[in-house]
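Thread amino acids onto this structure.
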């Protein structure tokens, strides 16, 4: 019990640190933005501040477009990835952000040509700044996906440190215009963006932007629609408000938004972490996802209410004049109450949205956002016709609360369809076949298990299959565990060999043990002494890895040792076949651990597990190593995400890559089906 409490406390501590870094980072980011916004509001007045606000909402639109295509798929699919997979993904994600910034920057410059006066200057500066702004934002989300919010905090601190003195320089040199303020803001962000590449040790790859979008086309375009619908409706509402009530009304609206700044620091800081944490919870304990979303949304709504009360009390007592000056604080004060009520609903939407993103329900969340954004725009414009800026904000109140009900209803439906239970009772983690037997992911594993049974029918009653991947983090161990459970459900006697030191915790939960494969290979223990029955299914046994600490062997001695290990592995697998119907072997990463090829060479066939971002060259090198040990490749299993809880649906790209890498292997075939969730193994040669 004490160990369980300590483990639970450790998890809460890690989550708390990640949320803490999210808040700290957003505080630093908001400090730079708020310093610039308040300075512009005080120095330039309502009309020029309105032009600045138009540029600001356009920037928000571009930011959401970039996040939809580049960083949102990264958060959903790589929040639990290992460092090499994360770096490969981040190079493509940040490159995509740069391309989005260049395209939208060109659009902003084109729009500036159609404008006149102060708005024209603001949009010229924005167009020049957008590529750097998009890249800097992408580093923030990349660091949070890895769980290293401290690096994001450092990057935003660098931005702030360079921005604040630059504002002073503009004041001294009398360059206090909207153009210079916006250009300076973007230039200092570009400096931080360059330093972000050094922090991550990753070079952005704009040339791989299309590859990134294509590989994540089930998420990216839908998140793009979702994000641009949200920011686009707010932008159009602001444009319509300016056309109906004038630029001064836009300035008042932006001033009221600035008053909510301290709370928005908390809101945006927590939002940086909500999706990565929801993805981790979905993988480790899905039954807690609903509670997590409720806590996020409800906690943020409570904080919004408290901040609104503080503003209602403090603004008439001198705070309003201090922050906004006499011209702006009084009209902005009228908007505090409706703004607070609307923000509470937005917080509830944020909690539900985190759950939908973690589930990968991109189509559902995009559809919901389109409906919500349409309601938001219609209510805002109708309110502006009714009572100017005050009416527009009250229209926003109605829209956000209707939207909150809609978002939570959609989350409930998505969780039911994904097989995520409403109960709080803890179930085995990372094992959807037993924990959520009716889910689509569990059915995907059963489909693959059926293909393995067909391989057994062709080869004979007993078969040993090794599961391999090029590098760690591909989800291979989770695949083996769930396939073993799916096979055992049908009464097939299965032995799972944990060659990668990852499976025992899943299949032997809470059962201590050390003896395993290494002890058997070295002759220290008999196989029967090391095999343990899994409590998850009586037809399944597990052989731990049993790692031993030995000296490093190189050169000719290493080759001799490798040959001896392969002979020993063949003897162990022969004994295992005599006692079990199927032996599933979880091998170490093939391109990192030499021992992996030895046990693969002793098995009957190999199944390759492909991760989404695995380079083609890594697959070819892996195929070459398998050829050297004369291993027969039976087939492929493709995971659309690095997390086993997000098996993909029918994406043909990895199958094309598999064919191109294995055209010379006549015994390799990839089964395809329009409704498949995985590629599965077969021993039959391909038919021409």
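Threaded sequence (688 positions):
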């Amino acid at each position: 019990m004490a160990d369980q409490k300590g483990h639970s406390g450790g998890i809460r501590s890690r989550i708390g640190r990640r949320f803490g870094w999210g808040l700290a980072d957003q505080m630093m980011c908001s400090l730079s933005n708020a310093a610039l916004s308040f300075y512009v509001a005080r120095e330039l007045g309502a009309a020029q501040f309105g032009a600045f606000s138009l540029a600001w909402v356009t920037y928000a639109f571009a930011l959401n477009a970039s996040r939809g295509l580049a960083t949102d798929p990264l958060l959903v699919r790589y929040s639990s990835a290992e460092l090499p997979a994360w770096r490969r993904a981040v190079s493509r994600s940040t490159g995509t952000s740069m391309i989005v910034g260049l395209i939208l920057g060109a659009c902003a410059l084109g729009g500036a040509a159609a404008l006149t006066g102060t708005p024209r200057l603001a949009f010229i500066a924005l167009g020049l700044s957008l590529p750097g702004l998009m890249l800097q934002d992408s580093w923030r989300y990349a660091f949070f996906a890895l769980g290293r919010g401290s690096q994001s905090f450092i990057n935003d601190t660098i931005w702030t440190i360079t921005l604040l003195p630059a504002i002073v320089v503009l004041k001294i040199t009398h360059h206090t215009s909207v153009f210079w303020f916006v250009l300076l803001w973007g230039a200092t962000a570009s400096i931080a963006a360059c330093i972000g590449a050094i922090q991550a040790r990753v070079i952005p790859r704009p040339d791989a932007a299309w590859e990134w979008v294509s590989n994540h086309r089930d998420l990216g375009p839908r998140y793009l629609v979702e994000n641009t619908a949200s920011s686009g409706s707010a932008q159009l509402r602001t444009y319509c408000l300016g056309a109906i009530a004038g630029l001064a009304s836009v300035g008042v609206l932006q001033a009221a938004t600035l008053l909510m700044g301290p709370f928005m620091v908390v809101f945006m800081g927590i939002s940086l972490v909500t999706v990565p944490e929801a993805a981790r919870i979905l993988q480790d304990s899905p039954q807690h996802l609903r509670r997590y979303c409720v806590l996020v949304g409800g906690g943020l709504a409570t904080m919004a209410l408290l901040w609104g009360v503080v503003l209602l009390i403090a603004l008439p007592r001198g705070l309003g004049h201090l922050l906004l000056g006499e011209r702006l604080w009084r009209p902005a004060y009228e908007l505090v109450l409706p703004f607070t009520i609307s923000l509470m609903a937005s917080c509830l939407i944020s909690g539900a949205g985190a759950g939908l993103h973690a589930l990968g329900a991109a189509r559902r969340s995009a559809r919901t956002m389109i409906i919500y954004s349409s309601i938001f725009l219609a209510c805002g414009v109708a309110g502006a016709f009714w009572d100017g800026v005050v009416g527009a904000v009250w229209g926003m109140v109605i829209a956000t609360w209707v939207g909150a009900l809609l978002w939570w209803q959609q989350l409930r439906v998505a969780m039911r369809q994904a097989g995520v239970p409403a109960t709080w009772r803890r179930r085995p983690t990372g094992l959807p076949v037993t924990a959520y037997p009716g889910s689509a992911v569990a059915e995907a594993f059963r489909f693959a298990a059926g293909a393995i049974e067909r391989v057994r029918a062709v080869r004979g009653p007993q078969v040993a299959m090794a599961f391999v991947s090029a590098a760690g983090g591909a989800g291979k161990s989770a695949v083996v565990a769930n396939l073993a459970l799916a096979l055992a459900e049908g009464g097939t006697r299965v032995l799972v060999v944990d060659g990668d030191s990852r499976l025992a915790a899943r299949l032997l939960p809470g059962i201590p043990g050390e003896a395993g494969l290494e002890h058997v290979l070295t002759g220290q223990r008999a196989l029967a002494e090391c095999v343990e029955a899994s409590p998850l299914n009586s037809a399944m046994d597990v052989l731990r890895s049993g790692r031993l600490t030995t000296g490093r062997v190189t050169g000719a001695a290493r080759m001799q040792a490798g040959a001896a290990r392969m002979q020993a592995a063949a003897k162990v697998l022969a004994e295992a076949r005599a006692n079990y119907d199927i032996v599933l072997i979880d091998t170490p990463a093939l391109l990192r651990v030499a021992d992996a090829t030895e046990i693969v060479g002793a098995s009957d066939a190999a199944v390759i597990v492909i991760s989404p971002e695995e380079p083609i060259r890594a697959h070819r090198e892996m195929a070459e190593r398998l050829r050297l040990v004369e291993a027969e490749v039976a087939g492929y299993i493709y995971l659309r995400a690095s997390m086993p809880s997000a098996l993909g649906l029918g994406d043909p790209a990895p199958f094309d890559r598999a064919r191109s890498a294995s055209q010379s292997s006549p015994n390799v075939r990839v089964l395809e089906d329009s409704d498949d969730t995985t590629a599965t193994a077969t021993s039959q040669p391909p038919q021409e």
